[in-house]
Amino acid sequence: MLSNRPGASVAGYVKDMPAGIKVLALEQLGDPVPQLDGSPNPVRDGVTTVRVPDALKPGEEDPLVSHDVLRYAKVAEGLDPQSESAQAIAKFLGTGENQSPHRYYGKR
Q: Rounded to whole angstroms, how far apart are CA atoms 10 and 25?
């Protein structure tokens, strides 16, 4: 993710990603925020979009609940390791060799 908050819809509007930068866009199906930029995430090398089921609980009606960063973390932790979503995330993350985490922040 290029943001410290999942759902920051950078994959759809950043057209020229610097060389070597890979983007993982984790999106809950019920989260309206990833669609607000009006641009679908590009289908290209280095950009992986994984859409996961929504974690709304019975009685929760506010769709912005789905945009909560802690909700995203719980959804990701609860994925069946054999699911297509979990496999896509594992493929993106790789084996852990020669990796170093970075955080990028956008400023206006």
A: 8
- Per-residue pLDDT of 51-68, as tens digits, reads 887 766 777 777 778 788
User: Mean pLDDT over residues 12-35, rounded?
Assistant: 77
Work out the average pLDDT over 77-93. 86
Judge contact between 26 and 89, C-beta under 8 A: yes
Interatomic CA distance for residues 22 and 47, integer angstroms: 6
Q: Residue 80 contacts by C-beta under 8 Å, 6 or more apart in sequence?
A: 86
Ramachandran angles phi, psi of 64, nearest 5°:
-70, -15
**The two structure tokens encoding residue 20:** 């070597």
